TrEMBL record:
Its EC number is 2.7.4.3. Catalyzes the reversible transfer of the terminal phosphate group between ATP and AMP. Plays an important role in cellular energy homeostasis and in adenine nucleotide metabolism. One of its GO terms (cellular component) is cytoplasm. Residues 30-59 are annotated as: NMP. It holds the Pfam family ADK. Keywords: ATP-binding, Cytoplasm, Kinase, Nucleotide biosynthesis, Nucleotide-binding, Transferase. ATP binds at residues 10-15, 127, 137-138, 200. One of its GO terms (molecular function) is ATP binding. Gene3D superfamilies: P-loop containing nucleotide triphosphate hydrolases. InterPro entries: Adenyl_kin_sub, Adenylat/UMP-CMP_kin, Adenylat_kinase_CS, Adenylate_kinase_lid-dom, Guanylate_kin-like_dom, P-loop_NTPase. This is Adenylate kinase. It comes from Streptomyces collinus (strain DSM 40733 / Tue 365). Monomer. It is found in: Cytoplasm.
Length: 221
């Protein structure tokens, strides 16, 4: 299957993308991973992207699209893929359609992970990270440490990252509503969107997504 995963920050896209890609036996193509891979391998696209990033500028759509095209043409993506973080706006969605059209293939579904804005703020603003090891992550509500402000694993100090502050989260949501959310309407016009609730345990959200994809497959047989 060829799937695009969308949803606001804090919806759990990264977690669900990895789980769904594994269940569906397709590669998980994340724009973040694409940028890191191209930059670390010093590809021409990576060097180009880095030049924009080093100057403090946004990487142009055409560079992002070229990276995604290159990745989707790899042998493991021939039978399908799950796109996470791309397309990020309508112009990228249109470019993706054109790209797929030239290959004679189409998207099967766009999974929209829905979560109330108040929950997004609660999820992200409640995160606390260990200063000694950033892989030690806690949450003031959902997975609090035994002792407030202290990492259960190593005893390090827990802190809130600047980009996890409520003010920053709300700004990120504004960007999502302005730039990315319009692609949902774009894909709805093509009958591709399957909206699922991203609330509840991770396993339940995964099952909802898989059920939505099964229904999509059955309806289009």
């Amino acid at each position: 299957m060829r799937i695009v995963l969308v949803g606001p920050p804090g919806a759990g896209k990264g977690t669900q993308a990895v789980r769904l890609a594994e269940k569906l036996s397709v590669p998980h193509i994340s724009t973040g991973d694409l940028f890191r891979a191209n930059i670390s391998q010093q590809t021409e696209l990576g060097k180009l992207a880095k030049s924009y990033m080093d100057a403090g500028n946004l990487v142009p759509d055409e560079v992002t699209i070229a990276m995604a095209k290159d990745r989707m043409e790899q042998p493991d993506a021939v039978g399908g893929f799950l796109l996470d973080g791309f397309p990020r706006n309508v112009s990228q969605a249109e470019a993706l359609d054109q790209l797929l059209q030239t290959e004679g293939i189409t998207l099967d579904a766009v999974l929209d992970l829905e979560v109330p804005e108040a929950e997004v703020v609660k999820r992200i603003a409640g995160r606390r990270i260990c200063r000694n090891d950033s892989s030690h992550v806690f949450h003031v509500t959902y997975s609090p440490p035994k002792q407030e402000g202290v990492c259960d694993v190593c005893g390090g100090e827990l802190y809130q990252r600047d980009d996890d502050s409520e003010e920053t989260v709300r700004k990120r949501l504004e960007v999502y509503h302005t730039q990315t959310e319009p692609i949902i309407d774009y894909y709805k016009s093509q009958g591709l969107v399957r909206t699922i609730s991203a609330l509840g345990p991770v396993d339940e959200v995964t099952e909802r997504a898989l059920d939505a994809l099964k229904r999509e497959k059955a309806e289009n047989k």
